[in-house]
Amino acid sequence: MTGFRGRGDNVALRRFGAIVEAAPDALLALDEDGTILAANAAAATLLGFSQEALIGMDQRSLLAAGSRNEVEQMFQLLLRQPQEQHPPREMSWLHRDGTEFSAEVAAALFPQPAPGDAPAETDAGPRLLLSVRSMAHRKTEDTNLRQAMSLLTATLESTADGILVISNDGRVAGFNDQFLTMWGIPPELMEGDSDEPVMRLIVEQVADLPAFMARLGELQDNPAAESHDVVDFKDGRTFERYSRPQRVGENIVGRVWSFRDVTPRRKAQEQAQQAMLDLAAQAEKLRTMAFQDPLTGLANRAVFNEALVGSLQEPRLKTVDVLLLDLDDFKEVNDILGHQAGDDMLIEVARRLRGCVPTADVVARLGGDEFVVLLTACPDADAIAECIVRCLHVPVTISGTVLRPRLSLGLASLGQDSVGPSELLRHADIAMYAAKAAGKNRFLRFHPDMMQALVQRTHMESGLQLAVPRGEITVDFQPIVSHRMGQVVQLEALARWDRGGERVPPSVFIPLAERTGLISEVGAEVMASAMVQLADWLSEDPSRSLAVNVSGVQLQEPDFAGTVLGLAEASGVAPYQLVLEVTESVFFDADCSLINQLSTLRDAGARVALDDFGTGYSSLGRLQDLPVDTVKIDKTFVSMVRTGNERLPILSSMINMAHSLGLTVTAEGIETPAQADYLTALECDSLQGFLFSLPEPGERLAHALDHAEEALNALKGR
Ligand code: C2E
Ligand code: MG
Ligand code: MG
After folding, report:
1. DSSP state, 505?
2. pLDDT in tens, 649-702
3. What is the spatial distance between Cα 715 and Cα 718, in angstroms, rounded to a whole number?
4. Residue ranges near ligand 3 (ion) with Cβ within 5 Å
5. Ligand 1: residues within 6 Å at CB?
6. CA distance 346 to 681
7. What's this model's pTM, rounded to 2 decimal places?
């Protein structure tokens, strides 16, 4: 017999042995006194004895002390209840090397008695077959399982994700604390019988409930599906939701939900996204700023320059025209109506300009009130220039005031001789300057003769610098008469410049002196000279006075009042006999210092006259706010009187308004008796003009005074 070894030659045992030799469990056959009759190979391996050594051994010697009688007890039990099923027992065995091990023991009587037989009827009495299965591997499995479970629990509890497991029948099969925390679910709610309160809590928090429920439904219909999406909360949090089926082997027994709070990540992402957008917007803004005039939206100087250079390099372009324009007296709009009005005017001008020019051509603002147009391939640039002057002059209401923008425009075109971009622009500039000099509100095309004028202007500037030291600045006096008093009451000092035997008109050199700052020197010279020359005339009659024109630039000097009073004192002229003529524009951006200068002078007795009244953008309403004593109605209003029979409410309003404010009124530019009569009838206080006398130098003062009085008398005799 090979394999299952047993004592004797029992046939049944032999057959049995062949079957069980290869069994994985240790099998032992025992006789009634516990002696081992047979043992298979697995028994030899389990117990450490050879099969031969086992045979004949008492099974008790193989059991540990505590288990020694257990086999015997099982034997007895089987003998008593042979038909019952008896569960295996766990008992401690001893290995040959003395180590104890647990094994599960199942026992059966052998041979199996037929129902009703007594077990002892077999030839050799009842025998016991033991199947001994070591529990060592099961112990390891249990430990592994426990370890795995604790690892799993630890992992579940320590993870930042909230985990919920729902079984197929919809019950909560498991969750971790984090799940409760994240969803704000009180733990006791999970212990309740119903899932409803939990579900209600969840539903209340979700921002997009329909989408949330739709996804749940989809997964319910499709148990094997995995899903990964995002759940937004009403309170602004965002969870990442991951779901996969829970499987045991091949079977799906439920669904695992895992939630991760990604709010900080989401916020960081959103911030990063916003930062990117801001950056892009900023870059775009910078880009437009680099090419666009921010106020008007027109192109800027850089764009114009590039376009000009480009057009001159383009051989196919037959015509290139540059139109340079500058608003006339724009400063007054700014000064009188404020910077917002100035901006509004520039925006309107830009809009109109754009409308006059073909869309393909560049219209740019160069800065301030200076604009430029580049026409390429335009058949008639003159027509466009004319259109611009005309269109811009259309009245526009700004800050409640109706204004008619005026501009001077210079036009230069690419001629036969090739000129560079800067030269073309310079030509346009020269033409624009010429347009201004020619009376403004017009356009002029560049002509080489204009260069001459430019040269002269530059030349004049250097000449003016030397005018005072060279004694070229002199003073003419023009009488101002009082009709009521029947005499000359005032003389206005008017600056004269004789340059190399040629007289330069004040309308040319005064603006030049103001621009260059030389006006201070010129003004001081005129004032000093006038005082010295008129000191005697003034001292003869305290009601006489001397009027001197003062520019805004002079009033900016910190000690202007001191200088004037000093000059008066030095020449023996009483300050109350001084009248300072200013134009209303000096008040528009008047600072304290300017007002202080005038106050000091008025406190000392000097008077202030508002020259050229009515020519600016100002209104009669402003008069009451200005620190002045007299208004001088400009000659343009006086010239409206032709026959003396016309109705001119503007003149009567001006005079009445001034009088009602306690101011005296002088009318300038009286050339005809009709004008003198008209103004006298309106109770104008004094009159000035060629009718009475031209401005005359000091040496001809007597002549001027005589002429004026003669004219007065002639008027009275009418
Ligand atoms: P203004 O102060 O209004 O001076 C009156 C101007 O009108 C003078 O011109 C005078 O010659 C002119 N005029 C006087 N009567 C008549 C007339 O009946 N008909 C006409 N058509 N004109 C008349 P002027 O001398 O050419 O001076 C022009 C302007 O230059 C002055 O206007 C004044 O604003 C300025 N100016 C003259 N001298 C000085 C000065 O010393 N300092 C300053 N800052 N400006 C001065
Ligand atoms: Mg004047
Ligand atoms: Mg005047």
Report:
1. P
2. 989 999 999 999 999 999 999 999 999 999 999 999 999 999 999 999 999 999
3. 5
4. 611-612, 668
5. 478, 494-495, 505-507, 510, 519, 523, 526, 549-551, 581, 611-612, 635, 668-671, 688-690, 695
6. 43
7. 0.53
